[in-house]
Structure formats: C-alpha cells, structure tokens
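Standup notes, protein team

Yesterday: finished cleaning the Bremerella volcania set.
Today: VWFA domain-containing protein structure.
Blockers: none.

Input for VWFA domain-containing protein:
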Amino acid sequence: MPTDLVARLKCIPEAAEIDAALDRELSAVEVPAGLTDQLHEIAASQALVTRNVRERSAASRRSPIAWAAALWTIAATLLVAFGMGWVWQLNWKTDIAKNDPVSVIPVPDSRPERSLALEWLGPTGAEIDAHTETPELSPLTDMQPFWPVITEVPPPETQVSQVDVPRIKSLSEELPDDLLANTFLMRWQPLGANPMIDSMHGRPQLLLPAAGAVSYFPESQAYDREFLLREAAHPFASPQHPSIRSTSVPVTGSQKSFENSLFSENPLSPEVLENARTEEWLAATGKFYVPAQPNQIELRTAAGPAVFAGAGTQLLEIGIVAGSTDPKNRAPVHLTVAITPPDSRQHARQTWLPVKIALREMIEHLRPHDTATLVVMSDVPYVLIDDANSQHRDEWFAALDQIDAGSPSNLAEGIRFASATSLTKAGFGDIRRSLVVLSDRFPALDAATNQQLRPLIENASQQGIAFSWIQLEDENYASLVPVPTALKGVGNWQVTNSLQRLGRILNQQIHGASTLIGTNPSVRVNWNEKSVAQYRLIGYQPEGGHFVSTSDTREFHALESGTLLLELVLPEDGPNDIATIELTWHDTQGKKQKSVQKVSRLQFASSWQASPLSLQAAQLTQQCLALYQNSYFSRRRGNTIDELDNWTSTLNPAIRQHASYPRLEVLLPSLHD
C-alpha cells in the first residue's frame, strides 16, 4: 500500500476546488463570432496552416491588446489539445478507460492493464501545493467542455478508428448503492483495515431487526463493533466501562454445524467450514460435564490457562447441562437395535458413525434392570451382543467396533430376524419391549417383499413389540422417502441421520417419555471490574448482519448441553470473586426458572494437565475450528496444527474412556494414530 495514501485521499477535496476555480476562469473568456469556421479552415488546409495563422495574427494586431491576448490563448490551447489527441489516437490503441481524464498524475507505462481504476486516488500533497502556488500556469485538468469542438474536426485518413468500450470517468462511479455489499467490502477491505484511518466506534455497524432482538453487548464506544463486522469474531472488551460490565448470551444446544462438517460427503471441506459456528461445535463435543438432576437445567463452570493464547490469558467455560426425563417409577425396558452395515467407508462416516456414537452414549443411560440387544442385518443376520446393561459398557463398545464397512446386507431378513429376537425376550409384568430398526435401504424393499413382511410385522406388534423405523438420510428429504407399505401404520417412521436427533429417539425409547427439558436458556455474566481487565466471547456471532431473534425457540432435551467459552485477562492483584453467573430458562409448563453461581480465582486450574475434562475438550474443539477457518486470533498468535497435536497428545486419559470420546476423535487427526 502506498505510504502517502491517506494524504492523497485527504487532498481530493482540494483538487476538486482547484478544478472548479479553473472552470470559473475559463467560463469568463469570450469567444468571438466566426472562430469555429476559422478553426475548421485551419484544420482542413494543412499546407497553409502556418501562413493562415500568421495572416490572421497580423490582421489582429490592430485589435486591442486584451482581446488579442485572449484570442491567442484560446487558439493555442485548442491547437495543443488537437495535436495531443491526434498523437494519442495514432500511438495508443489500448482501452481509453486506462487513462482517467480527471487525473493529472502521469501514468507509468509499466502499470498493469486494469489497475488504474482501483489505484488512482487523487493528486499527492506536493502536486496540490504546486497547483495552489501557481494556478495560472496549471494545465487544464478537465477538457470536457472543449471535447465536442475537437471531435467535429474530420480525422485524417491515417487515423485509427477508436473502439467503443466502457469508460470510467471517476472512482465514484464504482461505489455500489449498498456499501455493505460483499463485493464492496472485499475490494475496499485494505482501506478499512488501515490503522492510519480513524474509526468511528460510536456509529452502529450491525442493524437490528425490526422484531425483538438480543444484543450480546450493549451499544457502547467501549465495544468495537467494527472489529466484529470485519473479522467475524468478538473483540476483547473491558468491564471498566459500566455499559459492558455484564454480558447476556442466549445459549444454544444445536449441533447442526458440527454434523454438517463431520458427517457430510466432504468432511471438513472449506465450503462447509465457511459457515461453521463455534458454539454448535462446542455443544456437540461438550459431553464431559457432571450430569444434572432429572428434569433440570443446571450450570457447570471450569477455568484454566488458555494454552493456545499465550501466557497471561485464562479461559472460563460455562456449561449448561440438561438432566434426564426418566420417570422415577417406570417399568424396565428391553431395547433391541437392528442396523444394516455400511457398504463403504465413506458411507460409514455419513450413516454408521452417527449411529455408533449415539449407541455408545445410550448404553450409559440404562438403569440396572434395563437391557439392550444389538442385531446386525447382514446377508445372514446375527446377534452381535445380547442382554447388555449399563455394567457392560466396555463389551458394548467393543461390539460396535467390530462392525466393518463393506459387508453385504439383507434388510428384509434382518427385520424378520430382529422381530423374532425381540419376541424371545420375556414379556412378564410391565416390561416394555422396543425394536428400533436403523437403515438407509428401506426404499429398496420391493412390492413382493413388503407383502411378505406385512403379516409378520403386524403379528409382532400384536404381541407387544413397539416398532421404530429410522431411514438414515437427511431430514430435508423426508418428504421424498415414502414409507414402505409393510410398515405403514405400524410403529413410528422417521427420516434422519442427525446425531442429536438419533440420541433423542433412543432416549425416548428408554425413558418412555418426551425428552424435552426446557426452552430458551440464557446466561448473564456480571463481571467484577476489579478482578477482570479484559474478556472476549468465543463464538455466538451475529448471523447475516443481525443478532439472533428472540422469537426463535431454543430447545434443550434430555442429557444435552451448551457451552460458553470466554478468554479473560486477569490482573495480578485483585479480589477472588471474578464474576456472578445467572441462568434463566423455561420449563415444559412455561414457568421461568433461575439459578445463580459465582466464579472465583480458586477455580482456575494451574496447568493444562490439571484442567477439567470439559475444558480440555472445549479448548481442542475451538482451536481445531479456528485453524480450519484461519481466524483472526489464530493468525495473530501463530497457531499451527503441530501445536494442536502436541496438546492433544497430553489429553487426559479419562476422556478416551468416555462414551462421547468419538465426538472429539473425529476432529483431531492425531487421535486416529
């Protein structure tokens, strides 16, 4: 970027005033009658140009001196302009848009072909001073008033015809009507990012929607909204300013961004990661909290060093955890799960991997008297593990790892075999028997097969088997996937390949009740300005230039969680109390619930190894996404993949034994070794 760019920008208004002054002086010149005809004669007779000019000059000596001086000035100016235009037409065959007619700066021959329209920003300070000192000697910068006179002269026979192409008159013609358009921001980002140009922190940058909205931070000069708009990341804010001494954030438990990035055809592709949201990744991998009480949403906090931010920066994690909806006195359940093996490794990531994670987490939600059976619907269906309970988690994990991609399948025989297996389980007392069939091949059942399956399924349903049919496909295509005729009216039919949705379905089969716990949880952090010098929120960025609307309902179901991650800069001396956290949410009856918790310096771990499991997982998740997206703070701190692998290698071994460990494993390449 040129060093005198700012000075040249500031001098543009002065150059415009000089042009206006020259126009006023030229407009005062009187043109005598018949001058145009005389100039035509001069241009038509090239051999007599010098003689005609001398004769007319001699005849005009009898006129007054002032009149003669004005006439000579105009004639000389027109002849010079005519000569320059003739030479330009003979020698230059390039686009006329290369030479800005308003510019008085000589254009080097080595400049790229299309660079002038974006690089010319007005005269320099030295040129403006020179024009200001000697305005009477300045060249005519705007030849527009005299251009029609010159173009009336018939060109010579050797003149090259001019190509009719678009011509850029000035830079102002390229400014779009919407200054926040993506193309404008991309072309002019170097100007906006220049620290030499003063920024106006007080003017609003993000327009709020007309409906009710949530602002994460109050509008204040202490919070740099321009940084948020430019870098797509929340900046550091100081609680010393009264208006940002508290932070209100609506917490989400959604995992869509994580699932789209990991369980798609091209996992971790740039196109998918471009709109990935950190808070949804943290919600997907934040499964390492202490469980909450049934039918409650509770706060969990953890703190420790921010290992990817350098010395002096701490990390505060605020977890929002939902309990289970398991009734106290419910009957035991025997759950039979039947699944077709994936036909390829790529197909396994899209369909089998979400099912595998959901089944790993399901086994830990069983009560002591609950049991589960896993049926593999291969070409010859078989029972992989039978009558497993919560004490058999290791055997259950090992059985899931034995399912290989590429095995042939037989869905119709698998349904018959799984139904017969479920019927063999004792149905005494009030025990519930449920059969969940997960496959992506239901549309492959032909009419003859459906006709044979129908009586078998009806007979099993009459004997107390509760069916759930899940087509493993994107929910957006649910209306395009027809229900097979053998399954219509028998059991519950759903189309989904969402890890979060699969977990809700399995929990509902176990608990026998709805999994909804509450809606619209929100966290308010009241900072102690004496203990916190600066803080910044990670994730939870506004979408599409607006903050999220309060009309959107954010549901929290059983055993789900959400995470807030904040970086803190703490002074060496200060009170122990860091902040007070307030959680509000609405239960299923619509009643507002509230809980309060304080954060102290004593909660901050002294090292990475001493950090809680949830904080280690949150740091790795956030840094992984930051490196994939090349975010502002990751670039500034010089973070690398090798650094991420080094901290991953020192991960707490207890995380590897957790049922939700594969959620984190799919993100970090070093965990696959």
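Follow-up from PR in the comments: Confidence is low (pLDDT under 50) at residues 47-61, 93-122, 132-214, 544-551.
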